[in-house]
Amino acid sequence: MDSTLHMPPRLTTPDGSPRRVGVELEFADLDAPSAARLVRELYGGTIEVEDPHRCRVTGTRLGDFTVELDMRSAHPEKKADADAETEPGALDTMLEKLRPLWGRIGSLVMPFEIAAPPVPFDRLPELEALIRGLRERGAAGTEASPLFAFGLHFNPEVAADDADYLVDHLKAFLILSPWLRSEIQVDPTRRLTGFIAAFPIDYAAKVVDPAYRPDRAALIADYLAANPTRNRELDLFPLFAHLAPDTLFAAVKDPHVRPRPTFHYRLPNARIGDPGWSLAQDWNRWVTVEELAADRGRLDSLGAAYRDFAQRKDLDGWAAEAGQHLAGQHIAGRLAG
Description:
Layout: E1 20-27, H1 32-43, E2 46-51, E3 54-58, E4 65-69, H2 90-106, E5 112-115, E6 119-120, H3 128-136, E7 152-156, H4 163-184, H5 188-193, H6 201-208, H7 216-226, E8 234-235, H8 237-243, H9 245-251, E9 264-265, H10 279-293, H11 296-311, H12 315-328
Antiparallel strand pairs: 1-5, 1-6, 1-7, 2-3, 3-4, 4-5, 8-9
Helix pairs in contact: 1-3, 4-6, 4-10, 4-11, 4-12, 6-11, 8-9, 11-12
């Protein structure tokens, strides 16, 4: 296994500051206060308990962490979201009292999630200690039960927001998606849930065509028409909500979408129970996407080849073909393991 962290070709944001990446990690068998105490032990800070199933750890050396049960009904409604002039009725009061119990029941199958603050790429290895600590305290990953469908999400800031940059990265991801799924060996339960659904083949074939060069408005419109859901392996809703909020929210009514200038890459498994697993493996696979996006010649060549495989309905064969190409570029070998 190669634990060396690789860097993408472009390292700064549109304003010239170093790019950062947020990390979201799902797990079970460890409650929010216990996970929050681990964060404090590793990175310092102060624990704020918002409810029995949600804690924040503020002022750490990396920034502010959130640890919570990934289940909206387990958390009290925030005052800012409520109508301040409406007095709660008896039913509302009863439901609020039941939320902790509902959270305990939900925690049997729903994941807890640690959302780490955005960190510069070169500080990503500091989060490896968090994975080790969770494992040592008995936290379980997606491999621990057929009921678990837990993921690792990366949210790398974009290096640019022009149409060519966005199109190149979407093309690269669509071209490499079958290979990524093969390399990651995406958990069967995660595949069945639909949260990380692959892009429709017809849409992917359209986008990877070397002739596909829309402006940003047309790119977003095409994406929303073909993907009216955030449940994609690479979710661009947060990025489009940042770049074109009126367009995005006119088409999407989803309270989970938060505008962010990031790609939301959600395909990797959270293999916390596996001592051989690290963030570096899956991060380096994402870097492979950015490397391909930065090479227009390879991008167009592989896009044309992908379309041929898609027409034959042979994307499993395409995964092997893409892997052979990457091996020829001396990339796949460094990602083995």
